[in-house]
Amino acid sequence: MAIVDALLPEFDHEIAATRRLLDRLPDDRLGWQPHPKSMTLAALSEHIGQLGVWGQLPLEQPAVDLETMTRPPDYQPLASKAALLAHFDTRMAAARAALAGRTDAELMAPWTLRRGAREFFTMPKASCWRTFVMNHLIHHRGQLTVYLRELDVPLPSIYGPSADEAM
Predict the structure, then answer these.
(1) pTM
(2) Which of 23, 75, 78, 107 measures 20 to 30 Å from 87, CA to CA?
(3) CB under 8 Å to 35, separation ≥6 — which residues?
């Protein structure tokens, strides 16, 4: 089996579960944060969507230097559930398209994340996808479930029934 044939179903499953969770965002509470050091609900949700870009970068470049990455000068935070969902859908579709059709050789090529001279890691692109993209997404989705629980928003099933929803 090709590596991509193992990664795509996992990606599709995790993205569908994450989309169901994001669909529960309360528009009137997007500025809420559980602690002053925590992201707001909107910022966390936007970050989750932005991980789709990180799904593309390792597949399209041999390395990324965080020193050279900046937001566009006209950047405005996403301020509605509809905008956050559209952002997520667009970014994840682009990440999936970047992954589809990749060969094992492409996925085993090394990828490096650095900030200037400081190298954080170099690993095969497939490993990067599993750890830095998928695990990162799942980690922040877990945070989002806690945020929504604190706001008393019913949670969808993810890997099995939730306290609010049977499978």
Answers:
(1) 0.93
(2) 107
(3) none
